[in-house]
Amino acid sequence: MLKCLIYVSVTVLFMVSCGSAAQQQYKSHAVQKGETVYSIAKKYNISEETIYNLNPDSRNELKVNSVLIIPSSSVISSGTNNNNYRDHKVKKKETLYGIAQLYNVSVDDIKKLNKELYSRGLRKGERLLIPAASNNTGNTNTNIGNTLPGTQQYTVKAKETKFGIARKFGISIAELEDLNPDLGESLKVGTTLVVPDKAVIENAEIDEENFQYYEVKPKEGYYRLKVKFGLSEEEIIALNPYAKDGLKDGMILKLPKDETAISQADISVIDLEKRIENKKMKTVALMLPFRLMRNVNDSTSNDQDLLKKDPTLRVALDFYSGALLAAEFAKDNGISVTLNVYDTEKSDSKVASIISRNEFKNVDAVIGPLLQKNVEKASAMLKGEKIPVFSPLSNREMAMNDNLFQTLPTDAVLQKTMIRYLKENSAGKNIIIISDSKRVKQKEMIQTAIPTAKTVSPRGSGYIQASDITAVASEGMENWVILESENPILVSSAVNVLSAMPNNYKMRLFTLNKNDAYEWHEVSSMRLAKLNFTFPSVNKNINPEDRIPFLISYKNKYGVLPNRYAIRGFDVTYDVLLRLASEKDIYDAILPESETVYIENKFRYEKSKTEGYCNEAAYILKYNDELKFDVVE
């Protein structure tokens, strides 16, 4: 009897506090023996969810004589505009935004009355409480000139897709299509869409190179996704922060690609000088942009003037000098070499002319041309004969063919190498990411690999302060700070703040991309050395004082020490010649788990995702106290 009095008191208090309007909208129901939420919902022609919304404790246990709050008949009757609330039964394929359009209200207003929708999607057959229509607009149709409450207009940018925009605003594809009935299969840049008034993430671009995108199915939870993708709830939320409140039907998730990459433990360094078996004559075509005809006709310039005016010529000559020395080293190892040199004149039409005019069927390999479009032209013309073409200096995304070898690791390879190192060595470290808006993709890649990483965002004008770091740094652990920015102001402030941290904070600085910002005059090399600044690189730096055979031979032959292009010319050419001599076919000498190392460069070719082969071998370097670079890996 006492419990009954308590429940009645609560009900009276509810009715008084809600006022006369509330008395018209709700009534009470005393639970009888044998009644369930289902039977009560059926009695009043409402959904079970409506009862749960108004009576949260009813989810746990329904006690006899307990009092439930029930919408009055005026609330649950739909079709009269005089009521403050309506009841809506969800039909098949209906979405929240579609229902909001139907009643000319905002999605947020519906969620406020149906709180379970904050953490899940709609269910067919359930009944929703719908608030009265907004006074801000007089029609129920969504259009660009008059949007729904809680929405805004959005202009589609380059590289954005329906998946990306839906993900940006935390809605499903179906909901985006509900808001924009005339939406086609593809989006054009500049198209104006209706979207929710708040974004849940910054970027709407889709990065299919590094990630896959998945639309959550009905009733899917984190357990099912772990079984399907092998990802923990923590790993999923790291890439999709808006999923922390739960998964819902149609939610767009960004997930790591399921790739079977070769582990570092499986990679071994091999010495091809010890594997020379095929010593028959090797014919290599060396295609470089000397532009000899132009230089011969320029009678007013001497050699030094030509070199000053044409940096491409300087690079070509340096590369050529290294390649010649590589041919000599190969001959010293018993490999017969014919090096045919062609002047491409920096022209793809000249490249086509050279290949058409000369007999290339007996060529074992082509090194060059230097320029990307010229390399692509050469490989396209020679792919029918399967003659391998080695691109010496381009690290950009290329139009690959089955016979094209990209010898310079791309930025993507450098990033992947650094992230793998960080992931494998992050145990016991406090990982901190400092990233600006232009490096969102890189930040997400790091968070995918290390979900426990903490983040620091730059302040308004692009800088950080000591308090930003102390808020996330640890005194009891080594702090590994990953700085992702090309802004010299942010790089400078981060280096200054980190190097000035008290001694009880052990700091080390990393980046996936050592760009020009680190060469800015405000960025101190001494402070970088103090932070053991670590970064990925396509090559290491040799000590000019080391008496290695290549340096001695080059100095004796040319009278000077080689620069990086001369060393590159030697390393690329020598590797190609040794691969030709180690197998009957150079394609048989491409072993993804084997790495070759030379003066400053190393090579490990893997089959590209499209066609051709990419060099996946990169160094990880670290500043030392002498302002030189140590090889970490």
UniProtKB/TrEMBL annotation:
First and last residue of the signal peptide: 1-22
Keyword Signal: yes
Top-level taxon in the UniProt lineage: Bacteria
Pfam family, one: Peripla_BP_6
Gene3D superfamilies: 3.40.50.2300, LysM domain
Coiled-coil intervals, chain numbering: none
Record-annotated LysM domain positions: 27-70, 86-130, 152-195
Alphabetic keyword roster: Signal
Family: Belongs to the leucine-binding protein family.
PANTHER family: LYSM DOMAIN-CONTAINING GPI-ANCHORED PROTEIN 2 (PTHR33734), MEMBRANE-BOUND LYTIC MUREIN TRANSGLYCOSYLASE D (PTHR33734:SF22)
Name listed for the protein in its UniProt record: LysM peptidoglycan-binding domain-containing protein
Organism: Aequorivita iocasae
